[in-house]
């Protein structure tokens, strides 16, 4: 089904971290720029780094889309997008930072998303399925504990944590961006903190439509974008949102998003399948170096994300004072300085 709020974005669009703010590191690396850009001998050279990876599932075999950028035997980052149902499009800002840091990285559209296959089978819309999917992608890309950093943003953060609970022996490092360890805590923050920042009449109208299940009402998306998304999802006027963000919302698979997350980023309402997910008591099980990234204006509680970093035995916290849920865009220098420093610090 076509998501109405995607159309709203198009219509409107077209009418400290606690470290110093400095550019990402530029010092001499173990590999040369020539080596980083040398794709000779790679089996994806004719496709520009793109691989369609076969995935075996309980409901048959499918393919998922990936794209590699760069070469670095020691630093390889697999990017897990949000949603569920989002796409790699949201991450295209990484092209402005990771190549200069000579980090090899992989765009990846999860099954049912973007350029990957769309079986449209709700039986596959489970955490268990996506964890096994990531493991098959890892194997196909040849990533291992000597080089494999798993990065997850939003829903991708849930998936990254769940992967680490089962397969951390394959990881060199873990990055959880803009995601708390408990959906009940996410909802509590949305309802008890962020909701109270909305005008009373706006909140009442939003809640009335949610109670009626009237999620396709254009007014619902209009209110959320005007009063919530530009404050807590991406802190820019809609007409200034970067093209990859606009394209990412356009390509969102709303069916899986609605089923697992619910109708919007304003907490989880209804019977979305992630509504009871909570791993807060289990974080100590993840032993690999872990970076948690939070932002002041996020849809997620930055204090909870700071707490999470303390629960991981080898955890660190990166705070973005200007950022929201898409802090990589609205607090870019803070975000990428801290992220790159973390990756390069893991030997």
Topology summary:
Layout: H1 4-14, H2 33-37, E1 50-57, E2 60-69, E3 76-80, E4 104-109, H3 127-141, E5 148-153, H4 155-167, E6 173-177, H5 183-194, H6 200-212, H7 218-232, H8 243-250, H9 254-260, E7 290-295, H10 302-311, E8 315-320, H11 327-330, H12 332-345
Parallel strand pairs: 3-4, 3-5, 5-6, 6-7, 7-8
Antiparallel strand pairs: 1-2, 2-4
Helix pairs in contact: 1-7, 3-4, 6-7
Describe this structure in words.
There is one protein chain. The protein is α/β, with parallel strands linked by helices. The chain has a single domain, classed as Alpha/Beta hydrolase fold, catalytic domain (Rossmann fold, 3-Layer(aba) Sandwich), CATH 3.40.50.1820. Helices cover 37% and strands 15% of the residues. It has twelve helices and eight strands. The protein has helices spanning 4-14, 33-37, 127-141, 155-167, 183-194, 200-212, 218-232, 243-250, 254-260, 302-311, 327-330, 332-345; strands spanning 50-57, 60-69, 76-80, 104-109, 148-153, 173-177, 290-295, 315-320. The chain has an eight-stranded mixed sheet, with helices on both faces. The termini are far apart. Residues 1-29 have low confidence and may be disordered. Keywords: Hydrolase. This is Alpha/beta fold hydrolase. InterPro entries: AB_hydrolase_1, AB_hydrolase_fold, AB_hydrolase_sf, Peptidase_S33, Pro_imino_pep.
């Amino acid at each position: 089904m076509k998501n109405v709020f995607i159309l709203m974005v198009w219509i409107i669009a077209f009418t400290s971290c606690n470290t110093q703010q400095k550019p990402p590191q530029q010092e001499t690396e173990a590999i040369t720029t020539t080596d980083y850009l040398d794709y000779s001998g790679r089996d994806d050279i004719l496709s520009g780094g793109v691989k369609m990876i076969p995935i075996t599932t309980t409901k048959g075999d499918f393919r998922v889309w990936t794209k590699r950028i760069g070469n670095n035997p020691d630093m390889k980052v697999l990017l897990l997008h949000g949603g569920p149902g989002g796409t790699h499009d949201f991450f295209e800002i990484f092209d402005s930072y990771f190549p200069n840091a000579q980090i090899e990285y992989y765009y990846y559209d999860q099954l049912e998303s973007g350029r990957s296959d769309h079986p449209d089978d709700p039986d596959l819309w489970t955490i268990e399925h996506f964890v096994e999917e990531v493991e098959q992608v890892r194997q196909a890309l040849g990533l291992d504990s000597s080089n494999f950093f798993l990065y997850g943003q939003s829903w991708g953060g849930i998936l990254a944590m769940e992967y680490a609970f089962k397969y951390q022996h394959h990881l060199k490092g873990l990055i959880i961006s803009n995601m708390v360890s408990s959906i009940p805590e996410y909802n509590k923050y949305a309802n008890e903190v962020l909701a109270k920042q909305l005008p009373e009449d706006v909140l009442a109208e939003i809640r009335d439509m949610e109670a009626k299940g009237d999620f396709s009402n254009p007014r619902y998306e209009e209110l959320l974008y005007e009063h919530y998304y530009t404050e807590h999802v991406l802190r820019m006027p809609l007409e200034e949102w970067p093209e990859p963000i606009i394209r990412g919302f356009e390509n969102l698979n709303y069916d899986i998003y609605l089923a697992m997350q619910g109708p919007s980023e304003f907490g989880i309402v209804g019977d979305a399948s992630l509504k009871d997910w909570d791993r807060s008591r289990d974080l100590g099980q993840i032993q690999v170096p872990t970076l948690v990234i939070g932002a002041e204006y996020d849809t997620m509680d930055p204090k909870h994300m700071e707490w999470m970093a303390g629960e991981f035995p080898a955890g660190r916290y990166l705070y973005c004072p200007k950022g929201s849920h898409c802090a990589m865009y609205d607090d870019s220098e803070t975000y990428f300085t801290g992220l790159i420093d973390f990756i390069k610090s893991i030997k």
